[in-house]
Design brief:
- A 5-stranded mixed sheet has the order 1-2-3-5-4, with helices on one face.
- The chain has 11 helices and 5 strands, in the order H-H-H-H-H-H-H-H-H-E-H-E-E-H-E-E.
- By secondary structure, it is α+β, with helices and mostly antiparallel strands.
- 70% of the residues lie in helices and 8% in strands.
Length: 445
């Protein structure tokens, strides 16, 4: 009896110890796993937000794709009557521009989509061009699949916000109004309102679980069809990128030489003068106070000039007016200080990368300086437009023309700055004028 009791007690003790050990292990595992769970939740939420942003961006290009697809269909029908042949080049330009915009969008959210060379805009060449055929296939996919995916990606967060917050305002809803975002149900009591709030939490779960896959599904046709096909020779693109990198290094070296020259020839000489004058004033202060005071005034003037030159060098590196007033305000300031009357027309609703805006600023500054020095113009115009992910600059003047890039007018430096961003420059300056400088820069580089 006693032996059996002791055995039971010892067995019970072992079970209790085992249970306690399991509970301790579970508690320790929970404590150890808590940071991992929190990190997983944060990562999932960040991925969902990024996916929603991708889907919203894809919605904008999908709407344009639907328009271009309908335009293409109408043009194809009108080609039977001959009228569409006149519309075909415009349709092809719109198609290629939209495809380039989609490549830029996909490149911002993943690996860069390297496209082939320029596609033709003449109908006869486009019919046999593999790039145009691939872009047309992408257009159909994106207009039919990317559009609903992008629409769901935009509507799901709105549904989640509306239904999750419904218990806070359900009493303010009109009598008989639908409770849910999908148009079902009417809330008559607190349990009904809380049920709608739980539906909002369900929308959030759907966003976290499905939107990353939806974003990948929306981007898949573009990454597959808009990239350079196996028949495309990328050697030219590699050569262009190599030349662009070399131009960037040359522009960087030239900029360093300019800064060094400005500091050596200007500011350094001013500071040497300040040092000499201060030394002379210190020696004269006892025997000739008035002369020492005059030297101190000259030293102060030289120090102020050195400070002014330092500010000019700093503005030449990155003008602070760009950060304070944006590109439009900075160009307006350049026009106000130009000796030739200049009109500024800027339409760039979205800010570009700081390096791109700085390059645009320096291009306009150098061009206006050339106009004031060499063109004998009476008027100049600077037009800036931002579209399709690129910044377009048009600088014109009514001067005598004849601008030569090899004539030491600063155009070589402008071209190097632009090439560093993989941009383009076109100069038209016949004798007698007018002179037109066209610059195109990618906004996000």
């Amino acid at each position: 009896m006693s032996t059996s009791t002791q055995h039971d007690e010892s067995a019970g003790g072992r079970k209790a110890d085992a249970a306690g050990g399991r509970k301790g292990d579970e508690a320790g595992g929970a404590a150890t796993g808590e940071p991992g769970i929190r990190e997983t939740v944060v990562r999932a939420a960040g991925a969902a937000l990024a996916a929603v942003e991708q889907l919203a961006g894809g919605l904008s290009t999908a709407l344009m794709a639907l328009f271009v697809l309908l335009w293409t269909a109408v043009t194809a029908v009108l080609c039977l009557a001959g009228v569409g042949l006149l519309m075909a080049p415009a349709v092809l330009r719109a198609l290629h521009s939209l495809a380039a915009r989609e490549r830029d969008r996909l490149g911002r959210w993943g690996p860069e989509v390297v496209g082939p060379g320029p596609a033709p805009t003449r109908l006869r060449l486009a019919l046999v061009d593999p790039t145009t055929r691939r872009e047309l296939r992408w257009l159909a996919h994106h207009a039919t699949l990317g559009l609903p995916l992008g629409l769901f990606g935009v509507l799901l967060p709105l549904f989640a916000i509306r239904d999750s917050a419904f218990p806070l305002y359900w009493r303010l809803m009109p009598e008989g109004a639908t409770s849910t975002s999908i148009g079902l149900g009417i809330a008559h009591s607190w349990p009904d309102a809380i049920a709608v709030g739980l539906l909002g939490l369900g929308w959030i779960a759907i966003i976290v679980g499905l939107t990353p896959g939806m974003a990948r599904l929306q981007a898949r046709p573009g990454r597959r069809l808009l990239a350079a096909g196996p028949e495309t020779d990328l050697s030219l693109r590699v050569a262009q990128l190599t030349a662009s990198r070399a131009a960037a290094l040359d522009a960087h070296s030239a900029e360093l030489r300019r800064i060094e020259r400005s500091l050596h020839d200007g500011t350094q000489n001013r500071l040497v003068t300040v040092t000499v004058l201060l030394g002379a004033a210190r020696r004269m202060v006892a025997r000739d106070p008035s002369g020492a005071e005059e030297l101190l005034e000259r030293a102060q003037s030289a120090a102020e000039q050195a400070l002014s030159e330092l500010r000019q060098v700093g503005r030449g590196i990155l003008p602070p007016v760009l950060a304070d007033r944006g590109l439009a305000g900075a160009l307006t300031g350049l026009a106000a200080s130009c000796l030739v009357p200049c009109r500024i027309d800027v339409e760039a609703p979205e800010r570009c990368a700081a390096s791109v805006e700085a390059t645009a600023y320096f291009v306009v500054a150098e061009a206006l300086t050339n106009i004031a020095k060499h063109s004998h113009a009476e008027n100049a115009t600077v037009t800036v437009r931002s579209r399709d992910g690129r910044l377009h600059l048009h600088i014109t003047d009514d001067g005598r023309g004849g601008a030569d890039e090899d004539g030491g007018s600063g155009l070589t430096g402008i071209r190097r700055r632009i090439a560093a961003h993989d941009g383009t420059l076109f100069l038209t300056s016949p004798a007698g004028g007018p002179t037109t400088l066209k610059v195109e820069l990618p906004c996000g580089s």
